[in-house]
Amino acid sequence: MKVLRSPKKMQEVAERLRRQGKSIGFVPTMGALHEGHLSLVRRARKENDRVVVSLFVNPLQFGPKEDLKRYPRPLAVDQEMLKKEKTDFLFLPSPKDFYPAGYQTFVEVTKVSGGLCGAFRPGHFRGVATVVAKLFNLVRATRVYVGAKDYQQACLVKQLVRDLNFDLQVRVMPLVRERSGLALSSRNRYLSASERERALTISKTLKWIRDEVRRGNRNLAALRRGTHERLRRGLDRIDYVSFVQPETLQPVIKIRGRFVAAVAGWVGKTRLIDNVIISR
Ligand code: AMP
Fold first, then answer.
1. What is this structure's pTM?
2. Element (H, E) at 120
3. Residue having the nearest C-alpha atom to atom 10 of ligand 1
4. What is the 54 CA–ligand 1 centroid distance (Å)?
5. CA neighbours closer than 13 Å in the CB half-sphere of residue 204
6. Which residue from 159, 180, 186, 226 has the fewest beta carbons nearer than 10 Å?
7. Ligand 1 pocket: which residues have CB below 6 Å?
């Protein structure tokens, strides 16, 4: 596995691969890798001649009071994991190279960034869209792999690729969970044993919603009430409980076809998100 730190070098390598007719599968990450990330790398490995993984804790997508400083950065372990998955290139840019003094260009995907996490993390999706656009210009991938764990982010990437005419396929991969049901996340490392136990309330509640809908419950108000009630037993704070259309992320008014139930909440100082796609 070759480690590339310079954006220019990354672009040169990608250009050369393109000229050689090689397909490039790209997995953007912030590191602290787990099986969720690796599921994307494995799929990229299967479907492409070369695999590029980027690891960059993007300062632009963290709010002033968020966890940028304490975000886990176990670089050596991450590198080992990526080597095992036969990653060809690890792109490791520095914040200084990505946003040098005088940097002033930002990308905004307006509607998709509006609700859900966008309402609670001002500027977050602008940071995500900006870094993703920069990465796409440097990695020149054939396919990019993103996880349904960050459902709104996956929608944003699809919209951005469409709107800015990136020559790139977006592949959204299923959410990977622990056996307990807990959605894998780099932020799970923040949780103590008892917090981890309380965090399970989220996946259990999402499962309850799915089961209720399958049993024929179509009463959105009651589902919402039941969800809040259950989440309150484990979470210290609920940011949102949303039932949205899978493509537009607009609120569901009546349960008919497929929809997404998405939740964000806090256990202690850790913010967790999770979702489930419900197709009765
Ligand atoms: P992150 O490092 O948290 O920015 O995530 C990098 C990529 O991995 C994103 O596309 C995430 O959606 C994806 N990802 C993170 N956790 C999971 C998971 N539990 N299952 C599937 N994909 C995930």
1. 0.98
2. helix 116-120
3. 146
4. 12
5. 16
6. 180
7. 29-30, 36-37, 39-40, 146-147, 149-150, 173, 175-176, 183-186
